[in-house]
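Next comes a single protein record:
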Amino acid sequence: MLYEEYGREADFTAHCASAHFQEIVLGKVVPLLDSRDVLRCVPRPQVRA
């Protein structure tokens, strides 16, 4: 399992476009996986009681 957290959508987008992500994650790690599920979550708005 790999867990990553980003403060802004733009940070996540920049990370995915980076050379190290493209080379290491997509080029080396992903081909070794039997399966790959990506779950993207966003914080829920606070609910007032």
